[in-house]
Amino acid sequence: MPGNHETPVTQYRQPVTVERMTGDLARLGVEPGDIVLVHTAMSRIGWICGGTQAAIDALRAAVGPHGTLVMPAHSMDVTDPAHWSHPPVPRDWQPIIRDAMPAYDPERTPTRDMGAIAEAFRRWPGTERSRHPAVSFSANGPDAKAILAHQPLEDPFGVPSPLSVLYDLNAKVLMIGTGYDTCTGLHLAERVAWGDRPLRQPDGAPLMTEHGRCWIDYTLPAHDTEHFDAIGTVLDREGLSRIGSVGYATTRLLSLRRITDRAKVLFPVRS
């Protein structure tokens, strides 16, 4: 049966088109030339005529040829299986997985749990992708290469990182049908707030090096998203988010610089 996802057609009054999404984005405040970090939950937009292609066409039309779109392109399965929990794997499987897991490849490694639009965007003509095996970003537009140029293996959300470049470029954050719990941009505020936090978590991934495929162990700053929703409530209350809709999805548009500067003082003090 034709369709672009499992959402029942009868749930909506009419289909969502490129023209409608582009108009919704403009009314919300997305402007030509903008640099926008986009989070999407496709199923909440409605029945999209054209599916992921239409959604990306609308986003590209909203920012125009001089604008740049950025999306999280995380691949959290390219990590040490010793730390997997959704689902965990047997201990005796772990060395087998480490030895057999294909090396991270920005062009071929798929995203995981990022949604259909982010995965389609990763494969979109002209899209670039950063080189972090677990928490990469993809970008399409004139500023893509500059945004993705530096993402340290052991500090992918700090300074420098794609998020810090987006902060410097005064990028916007667009959350289409998603909540603050998935707002990747808040990780920059977290890193600024907890810059000296000693707690780190071990990880590893297969990477291509001059010696071929190698398993690389590394550590990451411990991240804690449990405060993101409460911080988002403050951001909404203080008027730092512009709330509207894209299709049928509740949507927020924010300034990454403004929410970082505000959120960094809202994280609780940690050792």
TrEMBL record:
Bilayer-crossing regions: none
Top EC category: transferase
Single GO BP term: response to antibiotic
E.C. no: 2.3.1.-
GO molecular function, one term: aminoglycoside 3-N-acetyltransferase activity
Keyword field contains Membrane: no
Phosphoprotein is among the record's keywords: no
Keyword line: Acyltransferase, Antibiotic resistance, Transferase
InterPro entries found in the cross-reference section: Amioglycoside_AcTrfase, Antibiotic_NAT-like
Pfam families: Antibiotic_NAT
SUPFAM superfamilies: TTHA0583/YokD-like
Catalysis: reaction(s): a 2-deoxystreptamine antibiotic + acetyl-CoA = an N(3)-acetyl-2-deoxystreptamine antibiotic + CoA + H(+)
Similarity section: Belongs to the antibiotic N-acetyltransferase family.
PANTHER family on file: AMINOGLYCOSIDE N3-ACETYLTRANSFERASE (PTHR11104), SPBETA PROPHAGE-DERIVED AMINOGLYCOSIDE N(3')-ACETYLTRANSFERASE-LIKE PROTEIN YOKD (PTHR11104:SF0)
Name the UniProt record assigns to this protein: Aminoglycoside N(3)-acetyltransferase
Source species: Tanticharoenia sakaeratensis NBRC 103193
Lineage of source species: Bacteria, Pseudomonadati, Pseudomonadota, Alphaproteobacteria, Acetobacterales
